[in-house]
Specification:
- With 239 residues, the protein is of the alpha/beta class.
- The protein folds into two domains: 118 residues, Rossmann fold, CATH 3.40.50; 97 residues, Arc Repressor Mutant, subunit A, CATH 1.10.10.
- It has eight helices and twelve strands.
- The strands form three sheets. A five-stranded parallel sheet has the order 2-1-3-4-5, sandwiched between helices.
- Helix 4 links the parallel strand 4 and strand 5.
- Helix 4 runs parallel beside helix 8, helix 6 packs across helix 8 and helix 7 crosses helix 8.
- The longest helix is centred in the middle third of the chain and has 16 residues.
Length: 239
């Protein structure tokens, strides 16, 4: 079944170009030039990934991102202006999973879309030496203290209560649990998640997602139950 991609951009040439490239990859595309029509579509149609421009004539991309995150965990890619770091951080803070700076190469866009969909939908069984698997169940399930993750089902439980995570949050927590007891650097997290070259501003991306992850786990930076920050190095979850 083809994935359904939502595009929202008031620059028609850009939206139309993205649509062409996505359709060439056999995705089903829902394209809108304003936020209001996009909101109606989101309410009526199951979406697998959204591409949101920030500057729109009615409802800005930040608001759309926030509304999506009220009910959905599918990946969100924000389109930002060149070197507008504040836009990138704001989008990530509201729950976006990635951002692409205009102008961009269409093939880069397709690569980012595929990467986000893979991370969301194709979790493979992994045998983890540092983490217990639960009671002889499949290696799809990871258990670390009060946390339980099922990789294939893309579910997370804290003390048997479900924790709703975005694909990026899920990936970060999975990597940390797979390496329980060891420090994972921000650079390593970035590379494993985005398969991209690490750069100075990328640390902000990881920091924002870890903060959201902590909030959902009821964790604290000063007195962590789960995710510990090793200043200047990275993050760690104890076995």
């Amino acid at each position: 079944m083809s994935n359904k991609i939502l595009i929202v951009d008031d620059e028609m040439e850009i939206a139309d170009l993205i649509e062409v490239y996505l359709k060439n990859e056999n995705y089903i595309v829902y394209k809108f030039y304003n936020g209001q029509d996009a909101l109606k579509c989101m309410e009526e149609t199951p979406i697998d990934l959204a591409i949101l421009d920030i500057m729109l004539p009615d409802i800005d991309g930040f608001t759309l991102c926030k509304k999506i995150r009220e009910h959905h965990t599918y990946p969100i890619i924000m389109l930002t202006a060149k070197d507008a770091e504040i836009d990138k951080i704001t989008g990530l803070t509201l729950g976006a999973d990635d951002y692409i700076t205009k102008p961009f190469r269409p093939l880069e866009m397709i690569a980012r879309v595929k990467s986000q969909l893979r991370r969301c939908q194709k979790y493979n069984p992994v045998h983890v030496g540092n983490v217990e698997t639960s009671n002889g169940e499949s290696d799809d399930q990871l258990v670390c203290g009060l946390l339980t993750m099922n990789i294939k089902a893309h579910t997370c439980f804290l003390e048997e209560q479900p924790v709703v995570l975005t694909p990026t949050e899920f990936s970060i927590l999975r990597i940390l649990i797979e390496n329980a007891g060891n420090i994972v650097s921000s650079e390593e997290l970035f590379h494993q998640i985005w398969k991209d070259e690490y750069y100075s501003k990328a640390n902000n991306t990881i920091t924002v997602h870890v903060r959201h992850l902590r909030e959902k786990l009821g964790d604290s930076l000063d007195h962590p139950r789960f995710i510990k920050t090793i200043w200047g190095v990275g993050y760690k979850i104890e076995k």
